[in-house]
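seq as requested:
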Amino acid sequence: MITRIVKLHFKEERISDFFELFEDVKYKVVNFPGCIQMTLLQDHAHPNIVFTYSHWEDAAALEHYRLSTTFNGLWGKIKPMFESKAEAWTLHEQFEGTNKSVKSD
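struct tokens:
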């Protein structure tokens, strides 16, 4: 499994347009073959910055999505809304814990 984090910095006047568009496509993305989970996060101090946090079966599944008409249709609509270039990271999880799983010595 891989995790994909994408930072999207929108023009302030376009963030509501993005959220409206996202409502129309969020289930298409999360139900795309190979997508395990997707979360949309909004920066507390800078509300025109959002992050997508998604889990994919593997890099091939993510690449299949990135080449799809679903992704390309969405990307073509949101790219003009950007304040700055999107940033993306593809990561392998090394640890996951909660305060319930911490062992005390």
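The first strand starts at residue 2 and ends at 10.
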